[in-house]
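All the exercises in this workshop are built on plain-text protein records. Sequence and backbone structure share a record, each on its own labelled line. The question running through the whole workshop is how a given chain folds. The record below serves as our worked example for the rest of this section.
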Amino acid sequence: MRVNSESPRLTSSGVSAPAPLRKIDPKYPPTLIKERVEGEVVLYAVIRRDGSVDSIQLVRGIDEQLDANAMEALSQWKFRPAMKQGTPVDLEAIVHIPFHPPGER
């Protein structure tokens, strides 16, 4: 599941997908921008029924610093939780966080 800011949709298990309410951008150090270190960090996380995020784990990284910054930023996100039959539920998610130099996407 790719978490983004689109409207909620129903997953194959009859659970509506969570939707981000507050997204914190990860820090992208100027030195890494200058060195053109870019790509997409992929993280596993559990989005809790209260909309908080925990159990964050790195699935695919691009740079040790950017990986850590992405994990730190995601830990501060807040979601409208996944819903099953009108009740908020915890949901495991894969979250993609892109890093691209300004003006390149």
User: Anything to note?
Assistant: Strands lie at 15-16, 19-22, 39-47, 53-60, 78-80, 82-84, 87-89, 91-99. Residues 64-74 form the longest helix (11 residues). The CA atoms of residues 47 and 53 lie 5 Å apart.
